[in-house]
Specification:
heterodimer; A: mainly beta; six-stranded mixed beta sheet; five-stranded antiparallel beta sheet; 0% helix; 56% strand; B: mainly beta; seven-stranded mixed beta sheet; four-stranded antiparallel beta sheet; 11 strands
Chain lengths: 112, 111
């Protein structure tokens, strides 16, 4: 079946460094991708999204890159802070489907 | 106040009991969802509803049922709870663009 997956389940980052979280997806028909952040005891929160007609999108300290050729999505966090420690999920869906498929998540730990 | 509110936040129940998890939203979205989260796994879709008269099964609907009482309310029921339904449950809504907004979650333990 179709699936969304992350390359690594955990990532340890030094405070101030940049973080890169990767995600591979298998459904070539997916056209909308979202990154979510989930802090302990909370529900997932929207970080940034990108549609398939774009390769890159930037937000505040975050950048999402989409490579449709190899079906790869990444989230880059600049100058990682302790508050960035969380589980990060990528999600995908098909145009007008509105059912997000989630990867297993990457746990990011920021070292002081 | 939270846009998507789930009650209860925590619940311990016995095997075989019926339990209902409730969700209400103030975002005015037509689309609502119930997801289940287990350790080390992503969120898996249980049921979803695109409007009050529309109910659809997700990938893991067995053992669950839902009711869409109004645009703002979507409840999830476990007809006869079993231990492997112990998990974190999330309700979500989505806007026209497909972006989902999640509640704080309900931690359910079935003993």
């Amino acid at each position: 079946g179709e699936s969304v997956g992350l390359h690594l389940p955990t990532l340890s980052v030094q405070e101030g460094d940049n973080s890169i979280i990767n995600c591979a997806y298998s459904n070539s028909a997916s056209d909308y991708f979202i990154w979510y952040k989930q802090e302990s005891g909370k529900g997932p929160q929207f970080i940034i999204d990108i549609r398939s007609n774009m390769d890159k999108r930037q937000g505040q300290r975050v950048t999402v890159l989409l490579n449709k050729t190899v079906k790869h999505l990444s989230l880059q966090i600049a100058a990682t802070q302790p508050g960035d420690s969380a589980v990060y999920f990528c999600a995908e869906n098909l145009l007008n489907d509105y059912k997000l498929s989630f990867g297993a998540g990457t746990t990011v730990t920021v070292r002081a | 106040d939270a846009d998507v509110t789930q009650t209860p936040r925590n619940r311990i129940t016995k095997t075989g009991k019926r339990i209902m998890l409730e969700c209400s939203q103030t975002k005015g979205h037509d689309r609502m969802y119930w997801y289940r989260q287990d350790p080390g796994l992503g969120l898996r879709l249980i049921y979803y509803s695109f409007d009050v008269k529309d109910i659809n099964k997700g990938e893991i609907s067995d053992g669950y049922s839902v009711s869409r009482q109004a645009q703002a309310k979507f409840s999830l029921s476990l007809e006869s709870a079993i231990p492997n339904q112990t998990a974190l449950y999330f309700c979500a809504t989505s806007d026209q663009g497909g972006r989902a907004f999640f509640g704080q979650g309900t931690r359910l333990t079935v003993v």
